[in-house]
Every structure is written in structure tokens, then in C-alpha cells.
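Journal club prep — side note

Before the paper discussion, L.F. wants everyone to see what a predicted structure for a comparable chain looks like in C-alpha cell form. Sequence:
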Amino acid sequence: MSAREPVVIVGAAETTEIGRLPHLSVLDHHMDAARNAMADAGVVPAQIDGIASTGADPMMVARLLGIEPSFVDGTAVGGCSPLVHVRHAVAAIRGGLCTTVLVTHGESGRSRVDATYPMFGPQSLRGQFELPYGAHVAGNALPLGLVRYMHETGLTPEQLAMVAVVQREWAARNPRALRRDPITVEDVLASRYVSYPLHAPEVCLVADGGGALVVTSAARARDLTPAHRPVVVAGAGEASETALLSMMEDVTSSKAFRRSSRLAFGEAGITHADVDHLMLYDPFAHVPLMMLEDLGFVGRGEAGPFVADGGTAPGGPLPTNTNGGGLAYVHTGMYGMFAIQESVRQVRGVAPAQVADVEVSVAHGIGSYFFAAATLVLTRGDR
């Protein structure tokens, strides 16, 4: 196929259940999500010749589904891996390596059934040089630069709390969200600290579940009978900055965020004004604030006031994390797949908290704390 022929997401679905699911293994989540996505796409295993998986061995996923792939991708860079897999799938399809790629994700983040994280094992750089000194995820790793960021930008605790408040507003419109009860800034500030200055509602959920995507060429999609319109992968980018938090150039900003988004926006040929909907990976409330700035939607120090003034809320100019995000919808440990799923739903026009007339949605993910990042620009086929 032509290097510029559109590649589309023709199938997208999450696991049948999300939450606390101790009766299901990691592979169970992959299988469930994969079957749901294939049904959504109107394909059977024999029509798939590429596999990419996060959280499980892609060869095992392919074997259990009866897929014989000519393209296999097990890239593991943390939570943004599914976004990276979509980018790789686009390249593989355009390069003639395969015709249709199934991207799967599944985790037992809460129940811990068959859950392993070799990237953080004792043999890893983090396991040798940071974890022994207390740089753990909820304790101080991801929040590491937050106090410095607040000092440099003037972000207030009230503005930070508004991130959680706004995402509960979105979650209240989503029957599947795990945290739907509305909260106020006062509620957030009165709740317990998890890692100063972050309170419990400003920290992501921990749950079980997953999702899957079917990616193919626009030409091949015309021969299928998907349940919904195909969504075009108009642009994609990926980048990495470091392998250790202690090696970051600036703990209040991410070079990887900036690079991956520039690549995706450039390939799609869009500007920030073209974006109708935004999904930002939110393990902690301050991370989407940094992303708003690093991706160029607002200037340095402007993200907190932007969110506090309703910029990302229902009815605001930049609807963001409309499923409730990792703070209120679901977070299994690697959230990137769920960000893509909501972007797909918004472009299709079928999201529970649907934004009117979404033509361009951007999904942006973080990988292994601030080590890596990936960005997707998804658009309607008739744009």
C-alpha cells in the first residue's frame, strides 16, 4: 500500500468488566478484550496477521486466539505502550509486513493474578539504583517534581484539586466509571494524603481490566463490516528521555512529551486549534497539567488556572479525559489503552459523555514514570 494511504482503527473494545476481578488472570483480560474488539471490527482470527501486546507475551496471545502472525510487537515502555503499538502497527501495515494488527492489553492491577513487572525487577536500572532508596511510584517517584513545579509556576493546592473535581464531573456521565460520586475542592483538600501534596482523590485508581484494537488499512476496512465507522490514525509519535528519574533534565517538564506530540501533530498536519477532544494519561492529578503545557495547549504555569476556570470540564473549550480518566474511570497500572479507547469512542460519536462534533481527538500517554511518551491523533474518515 502507499506510504500515505490511511490506516484506521476498525475495532475497539475494552474487557467486559473492569474493577476488582480476582477470578480472571492477565491472559483472561487479553482474551476477553481481543474477542470483543474482533467482534467490533467484524473480523475473525484468520483475517489477522499481526499481533502487539502489553502486559502479556504477544506470542502466547496469538497462540490462544489462533492467530498466525507475520508481525509481532512486544514493545514494553510502560503505560504508553499501546499507543506505541498503534504507531508500529501503522508502519508495519504501510510497509507491507502485514495487513491487520490486533493490539491487546490486560492487567490484574488490583487482584495481582499472575501480575509481574520485570522492568522494575532487581535486575533493572531502577531496581539497582533507585528503588532501594525509596523511589516508589505512589511514595515519591511520579510526584517527585510536583512541589518544585508548584514553586516555579504558582500552582495552588486548590487548582491541583480541581483536576480531580473536573474528572469526577465527566465520570458522573459514564455509568462504567468506578468513581462517579461528585466531589468538591474542599472534599479533596480534606481527604488523606497519599504522597504530599497529593490527596487520595488526586491519585489514580488501581483496578483489573484491559482493552484491544484492530488496526488495518482503509482499503481493507471497506471489505469488512465493523460495528462503527473506522477511525483514522492521522498522526503518531513516540519518544523517550531517560531510563532513570535521577537522569531527567527537568523533573517539572518532559522532553519526551514535547517530542512525541510534535511528531504526531506534524504527521497529522494539525494545530492545537484543530483539536476537539483530548485524552491525557493521569496517574496523578499534576501529570495532565504538565502535559497541557508540554504539548503546547497552554503556556508554562497556565495549566492550573485553565483547569480551574473550566477549560477541560464539560462545556469547556478543551474537553479532556471525558471517561473520567485514571483518577475516576479506571487505571490498571498501564492506562494508555483506555485513553485510546475513549478517543475512538469520541470520534465515532458513541461515548457515554459524548462531546459534540468531535473530528480530531488526541491521546497522549506516559511510560514508566517520565521515561517515555507516545501521542496519537485520531480523526474521522470524512474529515
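L.F.'s comment for the group: DSSP finds 14 helices and eleven strands in the chain. Keep this in mind when we get to the figures.
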